[in-house]
Amino acid sequence: MADPEKLFRVDIVTPDGLIYSHRSSIIDMRAIDGQRSIMYGHTPLLTSLAIGDVKVRRSREMSRKVDHIAVNGGYIEFSNNTATIIADSAERARNIDVSRAEAAKERAEKLMKEAHEKHDQRSLERAQIALKRAVNRISVYNTKK
């Protein structure tokens, strides 16, 4: 008889509360030092996350069922077979307002151009981060198609 699939809990929390909670066989995310994957029994971990797509595979048997969550930085802590992501903001692909994300992208591009013309490094850096967040949201939204 085959061993039952080992799943662990994944919770994603923002200042607005718990936005995601499911059991998973594997999660993939971008940490600030590179791509990471976590499976059941992984060594305890605490690391910073980059702006990116967190992919949660619900079960190996349901290998096609992958939830995509746009995370704008934060931290992941994994211990006792529970992954907790704490982020300033996070959105599931199905909840992203893509027209709002596209408008944010256009605003960020305009602000980058203005900051570059004024040689305002601080404003340029803020606009670049806003652009990364908008592009990430659009990209994650497009995974649901």
From TrEMBL:
The keyword Cytoplasm does not apply. It is found in: Cell membrane. InterPro entries: ATP_F1_dsu/esu_C_sf, ATP_synth_F1_dsu/esu, ATP_synth_F1_dsu/esu_N, ATP_synth_F1_esu_C, ATPsynth_dsu/esu_N. PANTHER family: ATP SYNTHASE DELTA/EPSILON CHAIN, ATP SYNTHASE EPSILON CHAIN, CHLOROPLASTIC. Produces ATP from ADP in the presence of a proton gradient across the membrane. Belongs to the ATPase epsilon chain family. This is ATP synthase epsilon chain. It comes from Lactobacillus amylolyticus DSM 11664.
